[in-house]
Each structure stands twice: as C-alpha cells, then as structure tokens.
Design goal:
The chain has 15 helices and 8 strands. It is α/β, with parallel strands linked by helices. Helix 8 links the parallel strand 2 and strand 3. The structure holds flavin-adenine dinucleotide.
Length: about 350
C-alpha cells in the first residue's frame, strides 16, 4: 500500500519531479502539456534538466531504489532481468513484431565489467538462436569498454557480430554522445568489413550526420536512423524539432534511394507518426515497397501504432531494454517527452 503521507526522505525527488513538471505545466492541462512537448520550440528547460539529471551519479543514487520511480519505469521496461525481456519478445513475435534486446548500461570503467557485458550478450544470442526468436541485439560501445580499451572493445564487437550471425540474429551498435561518434563509426567500419549482420545508429540532430551517412553508404550498410537523445550543444546538433525533423527526412530519403537499389538496410527508429507517414510517402514515390524498410520503436511507446504498422506490412521491431542500470536511460526517456514526468508524480502520491 502507498503511504498516505510522502516521507521526508522523498522530499528531494518530489521537488525535482514537480519542478520539472512545472516547467511544462504552469498554466496547462495535460493535453496542452503534451502538445507543447512536441512543439517546434528549441529544447525546453525541462528537457535540458532531465538530460543533465541523466548524467548525475548522485541523483541516480538518491532515486534508483525509490519504489515510486521503479513503478514508473515499468511502463518502458518489462522487467530488470533477461527472462522478462525474452518473454516480452515472445509476446511481440505472436503479433508479427520482432524485437531488439538491449541490456541497460554505459560508460563502464573496468575491462572486467566490459567482458561480463560481452558474455551476457553471448548468452542472449545463444538463447535467441535456440528458441528461434525473431530478436536482434543492440549494444552501446561504452558498455563494452570503449573508454577503457578500444582494441579489446573492437575484438568483443567482432565476437558478438559472429555470434549474432551464427544465431540468425543481428547486431546493432547504438550511437551515444557526439564525442563518441568518430570512434563508433570507425569501429563499425572495421566490423562491417568482416561481418554482414551488423548495423549502426545515426542521429539526425547532429549537423555532421549527412557527411557520416555519405561515408558509410559505399559499405552497403544497415542504418538505424533516429533523432538523437542526448544533450548536445547547438554547434553540434540542431536545437529545434523542426530542423531535426527536416534533417531526418532528407537522410531517410537518401537511405531509401539505396534501399531501392538493394544497397542498404534502412530502419527508421522513431515514434513520430507524422514523420513515419512522410517517410512512407517518400518510399512510395521511390517505388520502395513497404516490406523493404523497417520501423523500430521502444517498448511501451505507441504500442497500438506498432501493431497497426505491422498489419499494414511494414516490418516493425520493438527495442526492449532491461537491466538494473536504468536511471540515465529513463531520464532520457522522460526528456523525450517531459509530460511523462506526470506519470512519475502520479506514482509518487
Ligand atoms: C529503436 C530506437 C533506437 C534508438 N537508439 C538510439 C541511439 O542509439 N542513440 C540515440 O541517441 N537515440 C536513440 N533512440 C532515441 C531517439 O534518438 C529519440 O530520442 C527518441 O526516439 C524520441 O524521438 P522520436 O523520434 O520518437 O520523436 P519525438 O518528436 O521526440 O516524439 C514523437 C512522438 O512520439 C512519442 N514519444 C516519443 N518519445 C516518447 C517517450 N519517451 N515517451 C512517450 N512518448 C514518446 C510522443 O507522442 C511524441 O510526440 C532510439 C529510438 C528508438 C525508437
């Protein structure tokens, strides 16, 4: 049962959550708040604060074990352990929807930790292969020790790419903050030269991405195009949603042109249904069949629309996150839609 009175020890978290929500809601109903969250304004203060919170080890320590936050996180995560994620993948498969599994974690500081992450994913791939699940995996290079030992990280990714191919699965490489882009793309190119079943994420908000895409296209790459989830300076990334959406569409069209020539695997990782509609219209114009490109979304977001797209013949995958290290990831999910803070507050009172 929830306590009638919120304990004093919750005070800091309540203040933070209410402040964040208040920045969005001072004079608005929840529907107005939601509309504002998707408006064309440059990055809101709430989003900036949440992205800053995602980098705070102190805040993670304060909030991670609070029951109200754990309840709120469940909306985006079937559970902290792998069996829960595999169970969700089985349920999605029954609906004709594939999945992508990712263990939460980033920026490990010790090689042994990175090796445990590699071994965990090897186990995931073995289970996916044995159960013939339509599931792929997605990894963060800093979770595999990119900051600690780049050569060992590359070797681990090669091992995972081979295991993914053996399991009939696929290995995706996430894109993290802009300071990791060069290293991520370099590593991707090395792995891609030896393995086919590996792809990388590109972020439309980065001003450099059109050039990065151009450099990757000769490799007949698999690209997951997303808007971008981190707090980047305006010199690196477009601050306004309108500019990010426009950049996304241009990149999507370049990818679709390659798909039309069977020279790329294109994945559109977005919940922006207006954008998905426009991408699909471009595909039709380019005579790219709906079954030739994919839409990937996150677990718990836009679930009815995921099913509708799958019914219309668009291959859909859901990225399922699991693990105990969810705080930074969850803060980024809140930042994507600061009105989500309301769900946290509701779990608190
Ligand atoms: C499969 C997948 C993989 C990703 N991989 C990466 C990666 O490797 N690197 C990276 O930087 N980013 C990654 N992202 C996150 C991405 O960059 C965006 O931050 C995120 O997808 C939100 O942007 P959007 O495209 O959905 O559009 P938005 O314009 O942000 O949202 C469009 C609409 O979708 C809904 N929505 C979006 N986010 C949420 C949310 N959190 N809660 C509730 N509703 C929401 C809202 O209704 C919103 O109006 C990934 C996203 C997906 C779907």
């Amino acid at each position: 049962m929830r306590p009638r009175h919120v304990r004093a020890s919750h005070r800091n978290s309540i203040i933070l959550m209410i402040q964040l929500y208040h920045h969005q809601t001072a004079d608005a109903t929840p529907s107005v708040v939601a509309a504002r969250a998707v408006s064309c304004r440059p990055m809101s203060l709430a989003r900036r604060l949440l992205l800053r919170a995602s980098r705070s080890a102190w805040l993670a320590g304060q909030l991670r074990d609070r029951a109200f936050l754990r309840r709120a996180v469940r909306r985006f995560m079937p559970g902290e352990e792998l069996p829960a994620a595999l169970g969700a993948a089985v349920e999605l498969a029954a609906l004709g929807i594939g999945s992508v599994l990712t263990q939460l974690g980033e920026q490990v500081a010790a090689r042994g930790e990175a090796a445990r992450v590699r071994d965990h994913y090897l186990d995931v791939l073995a289970q996916v292969g044995a159960r013939r699940l339509p599931a792929e995996i997605s990894v963060k290079l800093t979770h595999l020790g990119l900051d600690v030992d780049r050569a060992a990280c590359l070797a681990d990714v090669q091992v995972l790419a081979r295991a993914a191919a053996d399991a009939g699965s696929f290995l995706w490489i996430d894109m993290e903050e802009s300071r990791y882009v060069d290293a991520t793309l370099e590593l991707f190119r090395s792995v891609r030269s030896a393995h086919e079943r590996v792809g990388v994420c590109l972020q439309a908000y980065l001003r450099r991405t059109p050039a990065d895409l151009g450099a990757l296209l000769p490799f007949a790459p698999a690209i997951r195009l997303v808007k971008g989830a981190y707090n980047e300076p305006a010199t690196m990334a477009y601050p306004s949603k309108r500019d990010v959406d426009a950049a996304y569409l241009v990149l999507a069209e370049r990818l679709l042109e390659r798909v039309a020539r069977r020279e790329a695997r294109a994945v559109f990782g977005t919940h922006d249904l207006a954008l998905v509609k426009r991408v699909r219209e471009r595909a039709t114009t380019l005579r790219v069949a709906p079954g030739s490109y994919e839409v990937h979304m996150l677990y718990g977001i836009r679930s009815p629309e995921q099913r509708a797209l799958a019914r219309e013949g668009v291959p859909v995958r859901v990225l399922i996150s699991y693990g105990t290290h969810w705080f930074p990831w969850y803060m980024r999910r809140l930042a994507e839609r600061p009105a989500n803070v309301w769900f946290v507050v509701r779990n608190l009172i």
